[in-house]
Every structure is written in C-alpha cells, then in structure tokens.
Amino acid sequence: MATIGDALMNAIRLHQAGNLQGAEAIYRQILQADPMQPDALHFLGVIAYQVGKHDIAIDFMKKSIELTPLNEAYHSNLGLAYQAAGRLDEAVAANREALRIKPDSPQAYNNLGNTLADQGKLDEASVCYERAMRLLPDFPDPYNNLAVARQKQGKLKDAEQLCLKAIRLKPDYSEAHHNLATAILLQGRRDEAIEQFHTALRLKPNYAEAHSNLATALQPQGKLDEAEEHLREALRIQPKLPDANNNLGGILQSQGFLDEASACYRAALALQPDYSSAFSNILLNLNYDPKTTDEALFAEHRDWGNRYSRVERMGPAPDHDRNPNRRLRIGYASPDLSWHPVCHFLEPILANHNPEQVESFCYAEVSAPDVMTAQLKSLAHQWRSTHGLNDYQMADMIRADRIDILVDLAGHTAKSRLRVFTHKPAPVQVTWLGYPCTTGLLTMDYLLTDAIVDPPGEIAWFTEELIRLPNGFCCYQPPRGAIDVNPLPAKQAGHITFGSMHNVPRLNGQVLDLWCALLRAMPSARLVIFRNSLQGKSRESIHRQLLERGMDPARFDLLFSIKGLSSWLDMYNRFDISLDTFPWSGHTTTCESLWMGVPMVTLRGTRHAGRMVSSVLTQVGLTDWIAETPEQYVEIAMRMGQDVDKLAEMRASLRERVGNSPLCDGKNFTPTVEAVYREIWQRWCGS
C-alpha cells in the first residue's frame, strides 16, 4: 500500500470526481492502518452526509474534531450535517465555532446564514450572507442564499437582482436560475419565470424542486398535463418531497381526479405533519366530492383546527379599548386582493363603509399587485402588505393596529393566512365570503351567512357561531366595462344551448348524470362546457364520461380556448341557460352569468356550499330557477328552455334587473354588515 499521505490524496481525487464508493474504500483502508487519521474520519463523514446518512456523518465528523479541534472546515462541515439532520441549534453552534477559529471564513458565514434562515431568523441570516459577500465578492452562494431570504421577506425585486448577480458570477448556477424564476413568478411575470425554470432544468435535469415549481407556473395556463409530467418527474427524483406531492394533488384536483388528489395531499401531510396548507387542500377537495358527508366534512375541519391551534395565544392587547360605541377598526385578511372573485364581493363593502363608524384595514397577502389591488387600496382606509411576514409577525402587525374585528376572506383556499387567526390578535374574529364551510378553528368566533345558505333549525356543522345577514350573505360588484348582452342565441341557432363555466372539479359524475338526463329530455339541445384547464387528460375524462352516458359527441362541446374570444364574459353570449353544479354550487359564476343575461338553474344543496346560488337567485327574484330535486332541475331547465320568447325577454332585461336588485346594492347592504359588526363588538365589550 502507498503511504497514508498518497492514499489520502488519491481518495480525495476520487471523492472530488464523484466516485464516492471508491473514495470510501480507500478512506477505510487508511483507517485500518491508522484508526486515528482525522482526514479519513472526516471525509467518511462527508460521504455519509452526501448520501443522506446524517447521524453517521455527525459521528465521524465529531471524532475527527476530537483529534483536530482547530480545523475550521471540520466544524463548518459538521454544521452542514447537523443542519441536514434538523438539529439546527447544534448546527448554529458548529458554524459559530468555525468562525471563532477562522473569523474571516466566507464559507462559514454562508453556512451559518443558511442555518439561521432555516430557523426563520432571516434578518440574522442576511447579516451573515452580506458578511460573506464582503469577505469574498466573487463567491456566488451568499448572493443566491440572500436572494432566498429576501424572497421570503417579500422583497422580490431585491431577490431578483441578487439572483442575477449570482448568475453573472456563475452562469451555470442552476439553483440561482431556479430562485430567479421563483422571484419573477411571484411578481406575476409567468412566461419569464417558466423560461428560467427550464434553464435551471437544462443545467440540472434531476432538480426536483425546479420540476415541482415549474408545474405551479404552468397550472394557471391550463397546461395541466405538462405540469403533471414535471411533478411526477420531481417525485421520481425525490419521492419524499412534500411540496411535489402537494402540488401534484393540486393538478389532479384541477383535472377532476379528486380521490387521487386527496391521496397526494395526504402523502405530503404524512411527510411533513406541520404542512397545514396540504391539510387545507384536503379540506378544499372534500367540498367538491359528492361522497363527503356533512359529518365527515365537519370532523376533518375540526381536526385541522385542533392540530394547528396549539400555539401561544397572544390575544389582543390587554388594554384594548372596550368602548362599545366608538369607531370600529375592521381588518380584512386575504391572499386574493388582486384579480380574484372575492374582490367582486369585498369592493362594495369597502366603497360603502361609513367612515364615522368604521375604519377599514386590508391585510393583503399579495406578491403581484394589479389594477384590482390598486382599486381596493384606494377604497380601504389603511392598507398593509403581509407578503413576507410569518404568522407571528402578521399577528403582531394586527395587534399593533389594534384591530377590533378581524375578518378572514379565504378560509382553506390557496395562500390563506388562517393560522394567524389561531393567535387571536383581534378580540373578535369572523370568516366570510372566501370559503363555503367552517374553518374548524375555535378561535374563529363567527361566520357570516344568511337564512337560505344556512337555514335556522338545521344542524350547524360549524365551529363558529352563525350570524345570518338579512338580505343575503353577499353583495356583488359587476365587472366594469363588461361587453354588451347579445340577443338570445337560440333565436338564431334554432335550439337551446346549455352552458357551464365551472371549474372542472365541480363536474363530478352526479352532475354529468343530471346534465345528460336533461339532454335526453331535450333532444335538440346542446351543451357547451368552457374552462381553460379543459384540455388533455381533463378533457378526455369528461368526454369519455359523456360518451359512457350515451351522449352523441355532436351534441356537446368541451372548450378551453376560442379564437376571437374578447373576454371571459364573452363566452356567456353563446349560452341560453347556465347549468349549476353540486355539491359545490357556482357562486361567482352565477353572478357573472346573470350579469350577462343568462339565467342559472340550480339544485338546492344540503349544506352551505350547495346553497349559495339559491341565495343569489333569491336576491334577484329568480326563485323559480331553484330546484329542490334532480327531477325538478330537469323540469325547470326544460320548461324555461321551451319558451324561447320569454327567455329572450328575460335576457334583454336581466342585467338591469340584477343591477337594481339587493345583490348589487352596496349602499344598503353595507350598513347591515356594519350593524352586525357593532352587535358582535358590543357582545365582546360586555363579556
């Protein structure tokens, strides 16, 4: 055998070339000759770290440090092993010891920054990265890592510039391209982000996180099949990646495959038990599924509340002013204060709040503000961006603003900040509009609804106390500049066209059964379903199900894009009657349909999600379009469709009728909401 020094150099060369097996064999031969050789011990630890055997790595590295305690690199690598094992306090200590030995080590500062970032100490981590940059300006890693920290802090422009700097220093830096893509995507520049994700993958084809995040960029474009391929590749590379499992669940749900979606969400939750958004996705998915019972739905939501409510209760300030009659500070928390359906129902409230009675605050979890964001911001008395804040920071902000009533507008939908409500930063907390079910939180005091959506006397499957607004649970702001309503299409076509603009998960087998029964009852009628995600597997599934139900392909169209379509709303000009879904009815879709002169037939459901359209139709005086049974649903659609002249007359007048109805009367609706706020505030003051 060569000398130990020669053998060690040979092993290191193999190690650096990626031949871990060959290097390990030589390191072990060296230790047979000299069991106390520190480099061989340490590099065996490095190999163990590289293959994911973190506890073994830590043992080898600690032995090497016992022999050579003043080797900065040993301590720095031990910090990496501790970090990978999730032992973050020990990782911080190891990195600080490395810096004690070598105070000018840029690598040690970078590693310490990464560990502090994992602990959520982003400000401290940023200081470390900046120190590493000063010590070694051409070192790309701290630029990239600081970019990640800035992104988490909501400083997306800074993150973008730091990524570009890292890429200039190292053009083939796949992680920096990936992080640049993420920062750009969060700013709303989707096409640029997709290009950068592809660059990251060209540089590093087995980059699981890049595959997963590229899928999230593709999903809103309706490219679900392509997104699914990337997610399955991410899971092939890294089967235990929680985000990829969760994101795949989102794609499968959007394609209408609810059982498969649920399995993916549950896999993500099993891998990461504190992954509350994966659990929220399970709950959201259950709302679509007609097999879900009220009892099961409630139990799952209550489980979410029990699991994630165990935090230190900060509560409101102890000296919170209990004056029952003073001006109230109302906070609205939502990730959807941009171009999103919720805004159509919040805008009338913000526009009509009585400034003598209410000071409104919006807590906007928005990374890419748009025209709608600007409109809402102009109406709110105070505006707070929460993007980049953790739950504690956001709760502190609300508490500092001394909010009296905090209103959740998202529930268990995407990017919700529902966990902030577990801290109870406001004396009274309310959920409303954004989610058609209970939150499951015992810290959520009330849910605003009405007597149609949640009739008195029924079992209330809610952890919140229900408060029923007298004139419907919502008020709608119609889209400005909407295209004109056209004449009834049936007059020219000679047949009725039923239409659906619902998202695909709502199109379950029971819904398709009922729609096919309607088409069989009206042999000349046609069905058009339009959604940008209705392509690939999603379209094939719906097409197959309609064929299995005996439908002639000539009688239905499944569309995701139409040449010459001037806007989303233009599609309604091709429908005579819209068809609602169940068990989750189409609330915003119905408001849009009515505004475009197209009435909606609905089946009154058995719970909140299935009764929202019944409430909307009642507000505009169209209760004769509400069915109590599937048979009545078919009968109503047939009867209304057979009287073409009456349907044409309704189409011509429906927009005016809706505009003059309580559904669009923000001036009268908002005072009723304010009266409820005052009532629940006074309850708290007297408690």
List the helices and strands and how they pair.
Elements: H1 4-16, H2 20-33, H3 38-50, H4 54-67, H5 72-84, H6 88-101, H7 106-118, H8 122-135, H9 140-152, H10 156-169, H11 174-186, H12 190-203, H13 208-218, H14 224-237, H15 242-255, H16 258-271, H17 276-288, H18 294-308, E1 328-334, H19 343-352, E2 358-364, H20 371-379, E3 382-385, H21 391-400, E4 405-408, E5 428-431, E6 446-449, E7 465-468, H22 489-493, E8 497-500, H23 509-521, E9 526-530, H24 537-548, E10 556-559, E11 577-579, H25 587-595, E12 600-603, H26 612-619, E13 626-627, H27 630-642, H28 644-659, H29 666-685
Parallel strand pairs: 1-2, 1-4, 2-3, 4-5, 5-6, 6-7, 8-9, 8-11, 9-10, 11-12, 12-13
Keywords:
Serine Threonine Protein Phosphatase 5, Tetratricopeptide repeat, alpha/beta, globular, 7-stranded parallel sheet, Rossmann fold, 54% helix, 687 residues, 29 helices
